[in-house]
Every structure is written in C-alpha cells, then in structure tokens.
Amino acid sequence: MERQIVPQGITSQDIVPQGIPITELEQSAFCTTEGNFRTRTLQEEFRTGVRWQRIPARYMRLSTDDIKIGIETAKEALGDDVLILGHHYQREDVIEHSDLQGDSFLLSKLASEKRAAKVIVFCGVHFMAETAEILSSSKQKVILPNMAAGCSMADMASAKQVEDAWDILKDKDVIPVTYMNSIAEIKALCGRNEGIVCTSSNAKEAFDYAYSKGKRILFIPDQHLGRNTALDYGILEEEMVLWDPYRPQAISDKDIELSKIILWKGHCSVHTRFSVNQVEEARAADPNVNILVHPECTNDVVSIADYVGSTEYIKNMVEKAPVGSSWAIGTEINLVKRLAHTYPEKNVFCLDEMICPCSTMYRVHPAYLLWVLEGLIAGIVINQIKVDDSVQLYSKIALERMLAL
Ligand code: 13P
Ligand code: SF4
Questions:
Q1: Helix (H) or strand (E) holding 93
Q2: CATH class of the domain whose range is 3-9+39-150+359-387
Q3: Domain topology for 154-268
Q4: Ligand 1: which residue has its CA nearest to atom 8?
Q5: Model confidence over 124-141: pLDDT tens digits?
Q6: Ligand 2 — pocket residues by CB below 6 A?
Q7: CATH 3.40.50.10800 occupies which residues in the chain?
Q8: Distances in Å between the alpha carbon of 401 and those of 125, 175, 198, 300, 397?
Q9: Distance, CA 293 to ligand 2 centroid (Å)?
C-alpha cells in the first residue's frame, strides 16, 4: 500500500510585520567569498540557520559520495516510473541526477507532455513543482524534495493581497498577468479574469495577449520583469504605477486611469544584486566582454546589457558563443558556474564577485532527493504537491493560455 507523508512546520507565506517574507531575510544565508563553494553534509548546512524541512536523522550525516551512490541506486530501482526535472539554478550534485533540465517555461512544458512517468520529482522551487502538478496528468504525482524551497519573490504576493487589489482594479479595464513565480491561487485569479501566466521567456507575447483584451495590465509579482518588458514594449515610465500591497491607498483612481501597466512591488533579491558599477567594471577590464543578464535585474542594468533573457536563453547563448569569447553573466551562481565549467574554452564569469546562490533553490540538498527516492522505493510518497480542485481548474486555464502563445 502506498502511504503519504504530509510535511509539517513549513509555510512559504511567513511574513514579518514590515511585510518582508522570511525567505527574503534568509536570502543571503549561503553567500560566500570562497571561490569554490561545495555541498557539505546536511548537518553542516543546517548551521546556516535558515528554515529547513525536517528529515530523518540518518540523512543528516551522509557524505556527498554516499548520497550520490544512494541516488544512483534508487534511480536504477525506480526506472522510468520516476522522472527527475531540474531547474538550471539547482546545485551540481542535484542537477547531475536530473533526467531533463530547463528554465521554468521549458520545465512546465515538459511536465505537461511527459505522461509516461508515474511520479515527477521536481528539483526546483515550490511554484515550479506546483505548476508541474497543475499541468501533469491527474494520474501522476509531483514531489518537491524539500518543502522549504520556496521563492522570496513569490512570497511577496499573497492570495489575499492580490484578491484585495483585484477588488479595487477589476472594473478599470485591467487584465491580470502573473509571472510564473507566484502561488497557484494567483494564477487561478488570472484564469478566472481573462488573464494569463508568463515566464521570462514569453512576457512580451503575454503582453500582446493582455492588450488584445484590455487597456491596462496588472503585472504580479516582479516589478522588474514587468518594467523591463513594458519599456521594451514602448510603454513610458509615466504610464507605469507601482502597486505596494501594504499601501494600496497610495495610488489614486486618476493614477490608474492614466496608466498602461500596474506593477506589483515585488523583486528577486538574487537578481537585484547586479549593478551598473559591476557592468562598468567588467567592460573596463575587457572592452570585448558580452554582458548577459536575466530580465529580473533592475532596468538600469538591463538597459546597458548586451543580451537579456531567461535561464535557458542564457545557457543557449553561451553554448553557441565562439571559442575565446568573454561572458559576464548576471544570474544565479549555480548556472554561471556550470556554464564556466562546461565551456572552459570560453571565459564565463559572474558579474558579482560575491557568490550568492538563491537560498531557496539551494535548499534542495541532494540528501532530500535521496530521501524522497528511497521513500518511493518503500511505497511512501514524501512531499507530494497538492492543489485544490477549483484552484487547479482556473490556474490551468491561465497556464494553458501561456502554453498556447
Ligand atoms: P527562468 O524562467 O528564466 O528559468 O527563471 C526562473 C527564476 O526563478 C529566475 O529567478
Ligand atoms: Fe525566486 Fe529569485 Fe530564487 Fe528565482 S532566483 S527562485 S525569483 S528568489
């Protein structure tokens, strides 16, 4: 008989009184100046003090070599019944065990297409696994190895805050567009109200869709992706307003009437670390360097970069770049390090000298992957992602609109 373990004690929406999600306060937990950061035992990594999901004691002290052998053995025993998906930001000791890798768009597409596996183990963060659950078949199960792997940006927009904003905005010819980095309830609100989901690889097309339906967009939760896409689209700064969920009264009806886009006040603290100064320093050191950044960076950085795109785009750009070319990259360090390692004949480095992994992505330590795989062998489904039926129905509508773009 298959049993389930329901995770306890972790909620991604813990907010401290000033409106700062706990995941945001924890974001710099793994930052280091050490050139070569490496996976340690879980026991050692627990000392960073961030919230981790509890795991049986035996996994705490396992060495990385023992974990690797354990995962390989478990994968062999489980065969094609289990598909492991890995986001590009996952650490190397996890990504090496993944069957397929991608950006959040590609992984959501794969989850909707790969119907043969009974279980999808999603090595990424909660909103990605939740999206995989919504798009996969009802017969498949989706597992997130560590339930504490949330996203600080997604935590900047709660369902209640977005519903409250929508109550004010819904009669003002607004179409809600949510970035994939948001909880399923927000995607469902978009599905119910002619809105759509987008990722960093299709935001412009999502704008085309939204402006064919209404006069203005409510863009949730990343103000930077929203602003960068809007500027690219020809929208002026003065046609944008910033929606602070803690001060909704700061925007008047007149401001909304004059706007083409209402940007939710959320951001990614990994990408907002990149600065104009870093770009200038990289160019001063090498005038031929290519600056390649993710669109979650602030517009002052994006506007002076040579190339801007999703994690899959970044990977493809470096892959097809000529031997000897130089690439200063503004995105999460695990992807940058992997590209530098995979293409030693190209000069690939991070714009930021400080090594700061996304602390929620990083919480998928390989011991968690081993734990959930060994659970499956024992007939226990650990950390299954579940979505309420009506949220599932409407969020799927918004996601399918995106997949049809
Ligand atoms: P991608 O869609 O580019 O993979 O980005 C996901 C993400 O969370 C970036 O911070
Ligand atoms: Fe969220 Fe930023 Fe981490 Fe991406 S890099 S998962 S947006 S916190």
A1: helix 92-95
A2: alpha beta
A3: Rossmann fold (3.40.50)
A4: 181
A5: 999 999 999 999 999 999
A6: 125, 151-153, 181, 268, 270, 296, 332, 358, 360-361
A7: 3-9+39-150+359-387, 154-268, 271-350
A8: 22, 13, 9, 31, 6
A9: 14
